[in-house]
Amino acid sequence: MNQSVIIGDELTISHETVGFYALSQGMKINCSLSFNKLNQLTGEAVTPENAEALFERARFDIEDIAEKAIKNQCHEDNELLL
Question: Are 33 and 17 in contact (CB under 8 A)?
Fold first, then answer.
């Protein structure tokens, strides 16, 4: 598990994104991962029905991507789009 950024266990699935939160230095950042990006990470077509399973399969990669984006301050108003 990543030490500087922690990804929460709660996921919100919509028609085109997976919503989750990251904790970094005591700050909660709401994140959205597009189905397109999840498809790139897993190589599988993403639907609302399989998005959670695919997210879990790619969780460590997603943590790395979120950590880099947060360190580079790519988020606005505690929102991060991946």
Answer: yes
